[in-house]
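Quick one, T. Sequence first:
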Amino acid sequence: MQSYAAVDLGASSGRVMVGRVGPDSLELTEAHRFPNRPVRTPEGLRWDILSLYAGVLDGLRAAGHVDSVGIDSWAVDYGLLDADGALLGNPVHYRDTRTQGVAEKVWATVPAAELYAATGLQYAPFNTLYQLVAAGSSAQLAHAKRLLLIPDLLTYWLTGEAGTELTNASTTQLIDPRTGDWSYDVAARLGIDLELFAPLRRPGDPAGLLRPDVLEETGLTGPVPVTTVGSHDTASAVAAVPAVNERFAYICTGTWSLVGLELTAPVLTEASRAANFTNELGLDGTVRYLRNIMGLWLLQECLREWGNPDLGELLAAAAEVPALRSVVDAGDAEFLAPGRMPSRIADACRASGQPVPGSRAEITRCILDSLALAHRRAVRQAQELADHPVDVVHIVGGGARNALLCRLTADACGLPVVAGPPEAAALGNVLVQARANGQTGDRTEMRQLLARTQQLTRYEPQGTTAAWQTAEARLPGR
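C-alpha cells:
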C-alpha cells in the first residue's frame, strides 16, 4: 500500500485527503478540512489564499507519511508574482464584478465565433482571458512577472518550482484544444503576454519536492515529491468516473454541475458554440466536452440564507412537493452572484408566469427539478452535437449523495444514473499520483479499480420523459 495526499480545494471548503492504493484496493480518508471564505474588500471580492495555504500545511501535517502530494482546485483564477516571486495581492474571485462588459470589448477584437473556433471554450464572463483583459491597465498586472493558476500557485509555494498544468490552463480560453498548446494568435490580438505563464505540465509530470521549510512546518520526512495531477478539479473528477466503456455521460456535481462527455477530439462547430458547450482538456489528451451549469450553488445559497437547516429533512420535505410545478433556467447568469437566492428564484418563476414557490421545501424542489432539467438538456445536446450516443449517466461529486437529485436526473434523462463516488476529484487526484508511481495502468484500469472498490448506487428512470419535455418548454427562450 502506498499513500498519497490529495489536496482538493473547492469554492466553499478545502480538504486534504489521504488515498491508500494497493494491488486491488483504493481507500480514501479525510485528514483535514478547512473553510474557504472569500473576503469582500474595497477593491472587490478576493480569495483568502494565505488561509488556504495554511489549511494545506495543516492538512499535510495531519496526513502523516505520504509518498506524494497532488493539488487540484477550481479553475480560471490566478495569482500574480513579482520578479522576486512574491505574491502581488490576493487573487481576484471569479464572482467579482470586474469582468462585466468585458466580453463585448474582447469580441470587438476577436469575434465570438473566431474565439470559439480557436479555443473551443464556452462563454463564461469569468474566464481567465476576460479577467486578464479587465486587469489590463492595473498596476498589479504591470508589475507582474509570473502568473500562476491557483493550484500551480500553491504547488510553487510548496516546492519553489513553477509550472502551468494543462487541464486547468485549458479553462483560461488561451489554449488550442487541438494542439494542447497556447493559442498564440488569440493572445497576441488581445495583448495578453503568454510569457507570464510558466511552462506547461501534464498530469503525471513531476512538480518538484517539498521544500525544507515545508517539511519542517508539516513534520514530514523528505524527500516528498509533488506530482502534477489534473489540477482542475473537474479533470480529476472525470478521471474518477467508474465507467465500463466509452458510452457514458458524466455530471460532476457540487457548486457547479459540469455535464458532458469524454471525447478524443474537440467539437468546434458553430452549433456547439451556440449551445454554449466547452472543450476543456482532460487526462491523456482527452477532451472534456461539457456545459457549465450553476449547480448546487443555488441550494447552497438558499441554505445559507435560511441559517443552514437540516438538509436531510429539507430534501425529504421537497420529495413530497408536486413535481415540476415551477422550474427556472439553472444556467441563467442571474443566479451567478451570491445573496437573496430564494427571492431571485421566486422572481424568476413569477416572471415566467409559473406558480411562485413559497416554502423552503417548494423552493428546494424547484431547484432540484430545475437542475435535473438542465442535466437532461445538456446530456441530450452533447450527444447530438458530438454524435456520441450514451447508455448511462454517471453522477460524481457531492451531488451523488443527493438521492432525490439523482432520481430526478434519471427520470429527466430517461437513462440509468450511476451515482458515486462522491469524492471523485480527490480519487482522481490520488489515482494519477498512483499511476505516476507505477501502481496502476491506463484510464481503463483506473476506472476498473474504482468500480471494484467504491460504493455506487444505480437509479433506473421511472415513467416517461413527456412531463420533462413540457416543463422545458416553459423556460424562457426554449
